Amino acid sequence: MSYMKLCCNPRILRSIYVVLILLVIFTTICGCSTEKKVEKIKPAQASFVPKQVLLPYFSKTFEEQGQDIVKGKISCGVVPHHLVAGELIAEFMKALALQKPEVIILIGPNHPNAEEPIITGSYDWETPEGIVNTNEEIVQKLLSQGKVVENNKVLAKEHSIGNLMPFVKHYMPETEVVPLILHHDVTFQEVDDLLEILNPYLEQKAVLVGSVDFSHYLTRAQAEEKDKETLKVMQNFDYLTLAHMGNDHLDSPASLACVLRVAESKDIKEFQVLANTNSGVIMENDLMETTSYFTLIFREKDK
């Protein structure tokens, strides 16, 4: 009887209803709170370079050198990706860091010519000093135009992009990137189509950097001769000759053509050679098979 009375008591029933309503509200709030906390984590490519390899280039002594090597706004440039030339990479990035670019569009070779001719990716990039963020707006714009394909798997193996990320993070920690890799036989018409999409960003917030190594597998003396030929081609903006150059001159004619085209579009006819050397010189070995390097800066004219 007492049980029945309790169940039929209006006050008790109201209390039970109130408790049930509060439980529903609490569960809903907790559910929403959990959903907010469980945000989708953006994938990131694994770090290409261990911290120990980078220490000589990130030392205080090195960073204090050459602070005024470049005057004026940099529109585009060329940098090596071979880590034997780490000092050249660091010098270039340090110079570029002075203008604090919002975005670097980084274009280099797809060394094995894997998969699609022009590839980008949406993943961020891990480095020993933290994450380099990929600019999603520009990547999505490229993909929407149908000229570029996303393939993060191929990018994950491409050192022409991955080797440079720790230098970007160290010298420009807030700068975002857009990675692009090109087959060796990408045509200059395809280069122009690509740049047509990128030009609005290059006018506003982005700097284009070609990640290019030059002569390969030659002796020191042979590499120096090939570099003289390549320098003349670059100075003359000689696209016809550039299109027929192979690995004995450079590893990505199309990436270099991107840089030259951007320079021409801004009426830049000359460039500054920050460095030109090869691995034989750096390692003091005249007999080894070498890779050669240029670091180039294209500056806008003073207005």
Could you walk me through the main structural features you see in this protein, from its secondary elements to its overall organization?
It is a single chain. The protein has helices at residues 2-8, 10-37, 51-54, 60-63, 86-97, 136-144, 152-155, 159-162, 165-171, 188-204, 220-235, 239-243, 253-265, 279-282, and strands at 44-45, 74-79, 103-109, 118-120, 124-127, 130-132, 149-150, 176-182, 206-211, 216-218, 272-278, 290-299. Helix 10 (188-204) packs across helix 13. Strand 5 (124-127) and strand 6 form a beta hairpin. Strands 2, 3, 4, 7, 8, 9, 10, 11 and 12 form a nine-stranded mixed sheet that branches. A three-stranded mixed sheet has the order 1-5-6, covered by helices on one side. With 303 residues, the chain is α/β, with parallel strands linked by helices. It has two domains: 2-37; 44-299, LigB-like (Protocatechuate 4,5-dioxygenase, Chain B).
